[in-house]
Amino acid sequence: MIELLGAAEIRDLAERLKLKPTKKLGQNFVIDGNTCRKIVKLANVEKSDIALEIGPGLGSLTLALLDQVDHLIAIEIDTRLANQLPLTIKGRGLAVERLTVINADAVKVKELPKNPTVLVANLPYNVSVPVLLNILENFPTITHGVVMVQSEVAQRLAAKAGNKEYGSPTVKANWWATLKIAAVVSRSVFWPTPNVDSSLVRFDRHLPAGSEAERIATFEVIDLAFAKRRKMLRSALAKLFKTDLQLALTKAGVDPTIRGEVLEVADFLKIGKQLINEKSTK
Ligand code: SAM
Predict the structure, then answer these.
(1) CA 57 to ligand 1: nearest atom
(2) What are the start-end ranges of the H helices in the chain?
(3) Residues of the chain with pLDDT > 70: what percent?
(4) Taking residues 256-265, what's their average pLDDT?
(5) What separation in Å is there between the alpha carbon of 127 and the centre of ligand 1?
(6) I need a labelling partner for 174 at 20 to 30 A (CA). Which of 137, 141, 143, 187 fits?
(7) What integer pLDDT is reported at residue 242 of this predicted model?
(8) H/E stretch holding 17
(9) Rounded CA gap, 255 and 103, in Å?
(10) What pLDDT score was predicted for residue 243?
(11) Which pTM was predicted?
């Protein structure tokens, strides 16, 4: 078993790199090895998996992952951390070839040198949803994973239609995957201590709800429906449909007087298909 990073080593590494963790980059590092092992366990990784980690930071979770998988791709936006990571791996006696570090913004990455099969990450909190959606959209070889996010975001991602937490991130993520909260994580395992609670979200990919053209149309509908979530669909979506919206919704089999927050991804898809129909008959 690889020895993981502890609190003293994390602080020491940060000091050597002259790194003052910033809120902007969501830099709260896990200082507890047991938490890292638990995250990896919940992700059910196999040796043959190619793991993708977003925001490896100082390498806490990276080392726990490399204890279980042969290869890991890590995307880190902070150049100092990206440069340090292979050195930390080497310092633990691991072959640096087992790690591919990409120094980039994970919201924008569309291609990787290898096809990852599992995502395991302690996500930077202010961009956790766009990062997760970008990864689900662009890396279909990822079949499952576990991400740590702010508890409030976890509740949103795992919410059921009709709940107050249910929103655009829920429906969009559900286009590709089924998500559930796997565990709550104490603030005390981080340095610096964050002022929000964290939770682990497990996701399992299913077939996408529709084609790529249907996804684009459906996501337009979702954005508008939740931008005005207190309004009935027939007024929330008025901007999108040039023709009779009431008729389009009725044709889609969706009640025009209900609100978007009670609809599931399959219902949004029906409206998305109507939008495509309308555009093609113009
Ligand atoms: N995985 C480490 C851990 O558990 O200790 C660090 C997690 S910390 C919550 C988030 C990490 O994401 C930081 O290392 C930060 O520099 C990095 N980060 C922030 N924004 C990013 C982005 N847009 N793309 C890639 N990495 C990002």
Answers:
(1) 14
(2) 7-16, 33-42, 60-66, 79-91, 128-138, 151-157, 168-176, 212-227, 233-236, 245-252, 265-280
(3) 100
(4) 94
(5) 10
(6) 187
(7) 82
(8) none
(9) 47
(10) 80
(11) 0.97
